[in-house]
Structures
1.
Amino acid sequence: MGPGHLVAQAPDRAEAHLAALTPPRRTARTSKAPSGSAPSADPHGAFARPVPHPPGDLRHLRPVSARLHPVHGCTACTHLLTVLDVTLPSPVTDRRAALKARSRQAILAAADALLRERGDAQFSVDELAARADVARRTVFNHFDSLDDVVLSTCTARLNEVIHEVQTVASTTPVGDGSRSAMFDELALTLRGADLPEAITYLAGALGPLAEGNDPRAVVLAQEAFSRVADHLSGELVRRYPVADALDVQLLVSSLVHGVAVIALHWCTTTDPAAPDARAAWDSLVDRLIDSVRAGYMPER
């Protein structure tokens, strides 16, 4: 066996290998070819026998892809070869995103726990990182400063408060749709929501920021009451679609912004940890409701 034979056989073996990977084509049955006829020229023939190449004929040395079909660049050839180039998406990106989300959530949960334990935001980045079980640099990978962590935690707590107020409002019995009935429903909502705990939490967290003239603390406090008012107004409109929109807004705004006033008064005059702190809050809520209900007409 000479060297020329080895050169001629290597491409044929490669072609046979690719043919084995290609599904067989369905062909119509034909009658048996007469004896002595030339073998089929179909390059996909499963039983095609190799044809010896005459000396000097180098066509058999063309790339296998060019010899599969007579038509250069046909669909079957290009599809067969590009299958090897198909790549599946790597899950590395998804794992990194999930790890990043878990780290951020751990930092927020640690800040929430420290705020509840201490009643204020007087903790360091090192303490926060240790509680979250992350590196110090990981904290700054997610937040620009410790104040940003506190503000993000307060925003999450605010969402919980709004959800609680919505739940209480949605379970309040429906009245007849009059202004007095809507007022009674709002009064029940304010009495039923656990606002003192949330007010203590937000005041302790945002107090140092407000004392440092950080405008973000003021904006977040304003946003808190505005969002509560929006959700309460939406609940009343959902219950009473024919109610006057201006009446609803005036009613809700007077009570919610009154809550903002008594919240500030309660925080500055009452120790939230005192045994009678909740009773003091309930008394302020009753005073607010009575004042808004009766108005400021001359006493008889």
2.
Amino acid sequence: QIGQVICIPQMASPMPPCPNGFYYTVKPGDTLYTIGQHFNVNVQEIINANPGIDPNNLQVGQVICIPRKCVIYCF
């Protein structure tokens, strides 16, 4: 009807690229520290890979980029 208010869902923004890493979905109880411990990555590296992330306000279901460490072996 004329004047009726409707809600139009917003399209989800595309995932930012995660070069040299992989995506991880935050689970209940996760912190950047525990995620970093699990994947052997320090918190600052996770923050650097996720511009705009609020390390004090992770949300369950939030998808973040976990950078991979490159190891070069010399023989």
3.
Amino acid sequence: MLSKEVDACVTDLLKELVRFQDRMYQKDPVKAKTKRRLVLGLREVLKHLKLRKLKCIIISPNCEKIQSKGGLDDTLHTIIHYACEQNIPFVFALNRKALGRSLNKAVPVSVVGIFSYDGAQDQFHKMVELTMVARQAYKTMLENMQQDLAGGAGPQIPPSPPTQDPSCSSVDDPPASTGKEPHYIEIWRKHLETYSRCALELEESLEASTSQMMNLNL
């Protein structure tokens, strides 16, 4: 199942970045603090996102719902808005406990920001590839649902667990329910087309990097 593959890929990427960060800390603690690979938590991620320091954001889809002003929904809304504005990929993957474990943390983690994925390009590019496939599958599913609601007889896809957009792939995220969705999910849906441009640019960049590596190997 694609969402499980994305979860596994995100886990591998984060574990590798944590390993690099820990190794740097053992060699030079001062330099390690100035050359962090990761940042955790809503406020810290949002702060560095505003400073345009992040290259990717990982969000747990089972964040607790807080609708008060300045609460979780508002903060995630803002994070997703900045990510789309800056064409930064944001991936919904893993539950909060699993996200924390992938970072060697004993506490649940809701959001992770990545400063640099140098040294873990393979994992990052694989994550991008998987999320682009999921994006297209999710887009097709939405089109089919809209056609069904409109009474159309458009192309159907085989029955399977709903696959989310690449920026929101997770095995823990439930299918569309009858209850009202969290506000940040509604915002994410509105940004689906905007984020597609980012995914396309990442795909072109990935193809260029692969071509360059093949030429170097010749």
4.
Amino acid sequence: MSDESIAADAAIDGDAVLRSHDVAEFAGTTPRALRHYHQIGLLSEVPRDSNGYRRYSARDLVRVLRIRQLAAGGVPLRKIGTLLDQGTQSQDSLLAELDRELRAEVERIEAQRKVMAELRRRFAQTARFNGGEGPSVTQQFDQDVWTLVTASGDIDADTAASIQDVLQSEAVAERIAAWHPEFERLEAQAHVDEASAERLVGQMVSFVETVTEATGITPFDEAKPIAGLIEGMQDDAFSPAQQQVWSRFLAAMETRWGAGSDSAEGGSEPAFE
């Protein structure tokens, strides 16, 4: 061993006996992670032995363990150094702030889980209705519109939940069954006769009336930007026969719930404001 190597080993603190892989194994991490901690300043540089390997003390290991605990608790690495180096009072303040951030993150995740649960419910419902097959064009349009108005925030979660509860009720299910299958069958047709169109529109309006009475929520405002998006989607999704029925349905809706109608003046809450 050279004089330089002997001097390097002698300069190492007697407590600095752990190598990178030892510390990593104790802390449940990797030597690469330790190098990253050094690079970003979470770990101070430690002595190296004559072969160039870092040597860590028990105190260094404790700091690594604390880093790992905080990181596992959701604390960003960029904040861990400040947290470890502050006094107890400052640490408590920072931890309280981090706790608030984590609560907000939990709320965001819970909201996402509700969306996922709703999507799964709707997909399962469609699969049962179609005997395990994918959604029809009309059903896909329904799902896309619902995603648009809920995920965009045009209606809040409570309103969406209220509507869903009503749609799953027996009375409303009967109203849907009265017109939706027949409307779907128009997907492949270019024309619908006058009597069929009028009957379908009447059933569709009756369905909306039932939902409105149950929720106190009137149809969306056609002046809103989202109405234009939905109109564009319907142009792509509906067949000419469905377009004929839908145009009449929208006209009936305007007569029933438009700005100048008696229903609009009655004070029901618009669904998409």
